[in-house]
Amino acid sequence: MQNTPHLPLEELLADPDVQAVISNTNAELIERRSYQPPACSAFEGRGTELVADSSYTFEIDREARRQLSNIIDNPVQEVRPTEAPSDNFLRPRRIGIVFSGGPAPGGHNVIAGLYDAAMKANPQNEVVGFLVGPDGIIQGDSISITAKRVDRYRNLGGFTMLKTGRTKIDTPKKMALSRQTLLEMQLDALVVVGGDDSNTNAAFLAQELYDSGIQVIGVPKTIDGDIQVRDAAGHVLCAMSFGFHTAARAFSQEISNLCTDSSSDIKYWHICKVMGRVASHLALEVALQTHANLCLVGEDLADYVDIRRLKRADAEGTIDYTAYGMTLRHVSRVICDAIIARAAVGKNYGVMVLPEGLLEFINEIQVFIIKLNTIIAQYNNTHDLDFHAAFPRLQDKLEYLRRLVRGIRKDLSYGVWNDRDDELFNDMPSFFQEGLLTERDSHGNFQFSQVPTEEVLLGMVRDYLGILREKGRYKVGVHRRFVRKTLKRGGLDPDLYGPAVFQNYGNAEYLLTHDTIISLKTLRQALERAGVLTTKADIPAAVEKCYLATVPKFKTQTHFYGYDGRGADPTRFDCMYGYNLGLTVFSLIANGATGQMAAIRNLEHDFKQWTPIGIPIAPLMHLEERKGRLALVIEKALVDVKAPAFRIAAAYRDKWLAATANNDQYRRPGPIRFTGKSEEDRPITLRLNSIGHVLANGDPE
Fold first, then answer.
1. Over the stretch 654-666, which tens digit does the pLDDT of each residue have?
2. Is 314 within 8 Å of 350 (Cβ atoms)?
3. Were 615 and a residue from 373, 464, 597, 680 both cysteine, which residue would form a disulfide, CB within 3.0 to 4.6 Å?
4. What percent of the chain has pLDDT above 70?
5. Phi, psi of 111 (to 5 degrees)
6. Whose CA is closest to 555, among 335, 269, 351?
7. Distance between CA atoms of residues 565 and 245, nearest Å
8. Do residues 89 and 47 make contact, with C-beta atoms less than 8 angstroms apart?
9. Hey, is 647 helix, strand or coil?
10. % the chain with pLDDT above 90
11. How many domains does the chain have?
12. Could you tell me how many helices (H) and strands (E) the chain has, helices first?
């Protein structure tokens, strides 16, 4: 072996080629930073103006009108170009911006769009960023946003420029400190980039700061896709929040890889849980992107009605309320049916997609959650203590619940938890009990991400598959060619032994053993009954080999997709979307708006039809229970099971399950990329809904 000369390490590290290879900056990063997203036609003039559109109306909550009186009557405002912008549009101003909640790809481009629009209108404009979320506002911690800083983060994922946090400005003290910070900094406006709760916060800030002349604008952000705005007549004003497309594509690429692995190794079911605590938008988009074999959409399960139960109850003159919505047991049976159907054609493998919040759509689980939320909230309010601190161990919590049943504890929640609840709850596995009793998040919501949803279901699936295997219903189909070749190599006549072992030996491509054959013992009995094996003879090795190939082994690999998607570099769609939202934000501020949410109408259509608008936040808010109390919040948007996207996905379920001898129908979405012409221009759900709208109504809105 030839000796390789060793350079001194210092010389090696100093080499320009080595430094170029290990540099933080690569060709992809350079291309991303240099990309300039196109601007909507509304921003092509010297400036913009706002035009109120009274054709959009909202059903206004009485409490929203009382608490948000200064901004409740805001109209929808469309941004339009003008060559003669007003003096107010052109005057210098100071604008603050803050990220709130989890990261979403495209956030940096919101800042870039805001900054570019501000500099175009007046180079004396200033933009400042509050650090680590709303805490930065409360504590007055901010940085100046400069051209150099913006250029460093253009088209990049994450919220790294400013960081983010989940603090809520939801108390008089926090509101007073925030007001003080904004006044001391002499800000003209504040931009809150966040989800439904953050935009709710923006509305209350706009109300509080109205008399101070400080404008507040919200920007819709969440990878879950559950911020979608329609007016009272159902007209779409905001079809999707930014970040959704990138997260869905990131998840889809990984799950597509699992589809390839599954169909190559042919021994695993990959169970893929994707983010989406309240809504199943990501799960649906991933299904459309990948054609995974099975995708459960929570909203579809909640919409289910068991007709057989209703008919039976009607015949008995009773009402069966359990007929509405699927039970956990029923869901597990749906999964088992899919597994068995694929195994019958030799496919004892597959890919299953579950939304993170699937259990929230199961009636019996929802009842437990409501009751436990009530018990926890009432305990906290009654004792001025934290339930989870008072009862740190699972056994402590369970004992507290038992005491409620026995009447030993006389808390306000006495009577909420009864003997039947206690019995059903104690039948659940301990890890699921612990999950249901886990500490709620900062909004008072049950943390489904902390519960192994897939394990809850898989436990029931494994149990039922075991029962079906004993009944001879769960088996792997073996190819006719394999059987004939194996038997011939063993010196046996396939046409003699085949019918004795397989129920469909005739012309079927995949052969299934008789239902009575569930072990080597029952295999022997079947051969003896067919007269091809004597009592004392051994089962021929070739026959045993064929039988063992039919014995199913349910092997699983579980995966969770969440944080990796929200930290991905944005797709071209989210780059464009975030940038134009930033441009919209400045137009709203420069034209005097406050209490509005920046949005792009016609997002589901081609870019040339995108229309920047301001949506009034206050009319979107309604009373909802949070932490055991009613509070004004923006309602989350669920998957519309009547929309074209879901209906099309549902129509393709059997095809994508591919429980036939034909090939699987997996789709390869490809990676998120910034080159070439094959990058899709928007989420598939939006494309399908757009096509459906055009087919039903003619030209798009």
1. 999 999 999 999 9
2. no
3. 597
4. 94
5. -65, -45
6. 269
7. 10
8. yes
9. helix
10. 74
11. 3
12. 30, 19
* CATH number of the domain encompassing residue 153: 3.40.50.450
Query: Three-class SS of residue 428?
Result: coil
Does residue 687 sit within a domain? no
Q: What is the DSSP letter of 471?
A: T
| Claim: this prediction has a pTM higher than 0.85 | yes
Domain that holds residue 140: 37-242+570-634
**SS3 track for 19-37:** HHHHCCCCHHHHHHHHCCC
Q: What are all long-range contacts of 329-337, with beta carbons under 8 Å and residues at least 24 apart?
A: 329/460, 330/304, 330/306, 331/296, 331/301, 331/358, 331/362, 331/457, 332/457, 332/460, 332/461, 332/464, 333/464, 334/296, 335/294, 335/296, 335/457, 335/461, 336/461, 336/464, 336/465, 336/468, 336/474
Our answer to whether residue 569 is catalytic in this structure is no
Q: How confident is the model at residue 578 (pLDDT cuts 50, 70, 90)?
A: very high
From the candidates 224, 226, 300, 664, which is the catalytic residue? 224
Q: How buried is 330 (Cβ within 10 angstroms: 0-12 exposed, 13-18 middle, 19+ buried)?
A: middle
HEC readout, 592-624:
CCCCEEEEEECCCCCHHHCEEEEEECHHHEEEE
Residue 478 pairs with which residues in a beta bridge? 511
Q: Quote the DSSP letter at residue 443.
A: T
The encoded tokens of residue 393 equal 């161990």
Sign of CA dihedral 71, 73, 78, 84: negative
* C-alpha to C-alpha distance for 637 and 420, rounded to whole angstroms: 33
